[in-house]
Fold:
Amino acid sequence: MILQGKRGIIFGALDEQSIAWHVAERCVAQGARITLTNAPVAMRFGKIFDLGTRLNAEVIPADATLTEDLDKLLEQSMEALGGKLDFVLHSIGMSLNVRKGKPYTDLNYEFMQKTLDISSISFHKLMQCAMKKDAIAEGGSILALSYIAAQRIFPDYNEMADAKALLESFARSFGYHYGVAKKVRVNTISQSPTMTTAGSGIKGFKEFFDYADKMSPLGNASAEACADYCVVMFSDLTRYVTMQNLYHDGGFSSMGMSPSLLNFG
Structure:
C-alpha cells in the first residue's frame, strides 16, 4: 500500500484500453483516493462513470485546455479528497490532423494548434493552475505520458511527435520551478506502443506494435505494467526523481538493431 493516504487526479481514463484507466485502478489498490477527469465530449462515449463508481472516485468533467475548468477541477478535487493533492497523471493526447488523415507535409495549422493545445500546452496550464492555487502538497509528483517519437522519427506518428517533444520540455522547465518552490516532482514516462483507443488510430500501428515488440529485449510494456510504474513514481520511493523522461519500453530505446528482425536466410 505504497500510496496509503495519498490523494490524486487521474486525467484521461476513457475505457479499459486506456493506460489512465489502469493507473486509476492501481492507485486505489495501493491505498490512494482519487478523482477522475476527462473532457466532457469524451465522457459521452466512454465508461469513466462506471470506473468512478467502482473505485469510489468522484468524476469531474474538465476541458484541460481551459484554465477555468482546471481551476474548478483542482478546487473540487481538493474538496472531495479533503486536502492538497499528492499526485496527478496527465494522460491526454489528440491530433485532428491524424484523425483527418493529413500527412505531415500538408498539415492544417489550425488543427495543429489544437493538437498542441490539447496534447501539450494543457500540461503547462495544469501545472500553472496548480502552482497558483498551491494545490500540490510538498513532495508531490506530476506525471505525463509520452512516446519515443519525441526524440526519433516515426513518420506515421505525424505531428504528435512534435506535441510529445513539447510535453517533455514542459516537464523539464516547469519541473525546475516546481521543484525549487514546493519540492514537487515533474516527469514524463515514454511508454511502449500500447493498444489504446488513441494509439490504434495511427496509421500502421499494428505493424509497428509488432516491430517494437520484437526489437525490445523484454517485449512491449503493457498498460498494466505502465500503471505499476506510475504508482512507483507517485510514491515516496522516487522522491528525488524529477525533470526526467523515463523510458518504459522493454529496452527499445537503447536498441540499435535486433537479430530477430533480420533475415539471414
Summary: The mean pLDDT is 94. Residues 109-133 form the longest helix (25 residues). The CA atoms of residues 7 and 82 lie 9 Å apart.
